[in-house]
Amino acid sequence: MNALTTTTLLLILLASSAHAQILRAFSASSLIEFGPAAEEGFWINPMGPLARGRGVTGSYGPLGNLGPFGEAIWNSTNAFRAAGNWEQLAQALSRMNGPLSASGPVFLTTELGQAMLNFNGAAHLLAPGGVLHALGNAGPLGPLGIAGMLGPNGAHGFSRNAAGNYLDQNRNVVRTIRINSHEGPKEFDLYELYKLDSFRSSEILDTSFGLRGKIDRGQIVQLRVASKRAQWVNFLVVNEYELDSFALQVADEAGGVIESNAETLSNFISVKVRPGTRLKVSLTHRSSLHAFRKPFRLYVTGSEGATEVSRPFHYVQGR
């Protein structure tokens, strides 16, 4: 490779990096502040599915401590971890059209699968960019989220260590898995459930993980996320106690910032990014009505292969 070719490649890489940023975004706060569309307003009321306490994304919902994910005796994640590594069984199930086969949930990430989902009358609400993005196919409860085939209770068969990393039969850390779909082989990021106590803030994470832990009043948790592809990414914070309140902020390297500090809803931020975009995520404890440490859960979910919805956004490139 000559000097001219090397210089040209460097310029291309620098140009790509300069444009790696948030393209569109919205949050729980922006929906409330700028006013949602009439139909959307029904879904973000304080008693709706995004409510901080009793909503689907709230303290008592499936993503909270009472759901299947965690270390309490009733969390089924414990049973999956106790089972150890069962990769060979998972591979055998895939050959029998199991969950990780082309006939499994991965079908929903194909063009045909997305077309079928769009027949749903509420698709524009649940799709990436929709007001209920966090509850839809591309959120943490979808096939690529923590509740899906790639999460701690999924069908991949990998074991988990104490920090939340997946391990193969040779005890090597595994981050991705290759699945055959009707559109050919696809590589997906596994959905980890990390513990704050074992978390390294300097590590750059992908867009497919959960983080849980406890912090003190006013404490800030910061982490860095990089998106491999152009996609919408949903950030959702769940307070395990209804008496707590947490705020979120997501910033890109180009200076774009969006925040969510709603009092009545589970705070979330949905952003559309370019390939290679690096994001800085900050979670802050805002208020509490108890003296104990404040438990939280942060879910970060990419939406590879999902069809986005067209709607007005309060944050667009250049603003």
Please tag this protein with its features:
5-stranded mixed beta sheet; disordered N terminus; Jelly Rolls; 319 residues; 17% helix; alpha+beta
Structural class, by secondary structure, is alpha+beta
**Count of helical segments?**
7
Q: Main beta sheet: strand number and arrangement?
A: 7 strands, mixed
Order of helices and strands: HEHHHHHHEEEEEEEEEEEEEEEE
Strand residue percentage: 25-35%
Radius of gyration: 20 Å
CATH topology label: Jelly Rolls
Tell me how many strands there are: 17
Uncertain stretches: 1-18
Please estimate the helix content: 10-25%
CATH architecture label name: Sandwich
* N-C termini distance: 40 Å
Mean pLDDT: 86
What does this 3D model show about the protein?
By secondary structure, the protein is of the alpha+beta class. It has one domain: Jelly Rolls (Sandwich), CATH 2.60.120.380. Helices cover 17% and strands 30% of the residues. It has helices at residues 3-18, 28-34, 38-43, 77-82, 87-95, 111-117, 123-126, and strands at residues 22-27, 159-160, 166-167, 173-174, 176-181, 184-189, 192-195, 204-205, 208-215, 220-226, 231-239, 244-252, 257-260, 268-273, 278-288, 294-302, 315-316. It has a 7-stranded mixed sheet. It starts with a helix and ends with a strand.
